[in-house]
């Protein structure tokens, strides 16, 4: 029986590796036991986030 093995290969560009390294460094400074925090402000950009309404109680 011929089985094909499909493996997922992670291929990151240099800029993506640097971004992951920066997130990992910030994660370890903020929460040393955490694995990785991907910061929403970095991902989306502050101009696309509405922080005022998010902080109000519902």
Explain how this protein is built.
With 58 residues, the protein is mostly helical. It is extended and about 55 Å long. It starts with 13 loop residues before the first helix and ends with a helix. The mean pLDDT is 75.
Multimeric state of these chains? single chain
Give the fraction of residues assigned to helices: 40-55%
How would the global form be characterised? extended
Number of distinct helices: 3
Contiguous uncertain segments of 5+ residues: none
The averaged pLDDT comes out at 75
Number of strands: 0
- Structural class label: mainly alpha
Percentage of residues in DSSP E strands:
under 5%
Termini separation: 59 Å
Helix and strand sequence: HHH
Major β-sheet profile: none
Rg from Cα:
18 Å
What's the short story on this structure?
The chain is mainly alpha-helical and 58 residues long. The protein contains 3 helices and no strands.
């Amino acid at each position: 029986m011929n089985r094909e093995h499909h493996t997922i290969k992670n291929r990151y560009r240099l800029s993506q590796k640097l971004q992951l390294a920066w997130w990992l460094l910030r994660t370890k400074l903020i929460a040393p036991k955490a694995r990785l925090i991907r910061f929403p402000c970095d991902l989306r950009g502050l101009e696309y986030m509405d922080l005022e309404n998010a902080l109000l109680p519902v």
